[in-house]
Amino acid sequence: MNDLTSQDHLSTQDLPTPSVASQDDLAADGASAKPAPTPLQCLNGSAIAGVLAWGAYSLTHKISTNFAAHPFSSANYITVNISVAVRTLVVGVFALATGVFALTALGLLGLGIQTLVKKNTGNAGTVHTID
């Protein structure tokens, strides 16, 4: 009979504890740590992502307007359903790209402002931990 209270099963004390390497440990092992991004790099990335978001929005608007102006007509029910699905998928993909690039632009802009503020206040190397 299989008894769960026997001493044959593993306890949590028998399992190895995973180790988490810090940045200092990685640098000591020869792995190079990446430098913190500069405010200019963040703002450049934000501008590029913003331009891509605007381009994706323009394409989304033009494609959806074109689809609305040219409705698909067919006597075949399956063909109409496939056409609607493809049109929805195309507009959805461009709308998703618009959102991703717009949120990336906002995030990089926020990171640029944060690094600029930290650079000006002298807290660039301060790491806050929650105990």
Oligomeric form of this entry?
single chain
Sheet of most strands: none
Uncertain parts: none
Which sequence of SSEs, written as H and E, runs from N to C?
A: HHH
Report on the structure:
The protein is mainly α and 131 residues long. The protein has 3 helices and no strands. The protein has helices spanning 23-28, 39-69, 77-121.
Keywords summarizing the entry:
mainly alpha, 3 helices, flat
Question: What order do the helices and strands come in, and which of them pair?
Answer:
Blueprint: H1 23-28, H2 39-69, H3 77-121
Helix pairs in contact: 2-3
Explain briefly what this protein structure is.
The chain is 63% helix and 0% strand. By secondary structure, the protein is mostly helical.
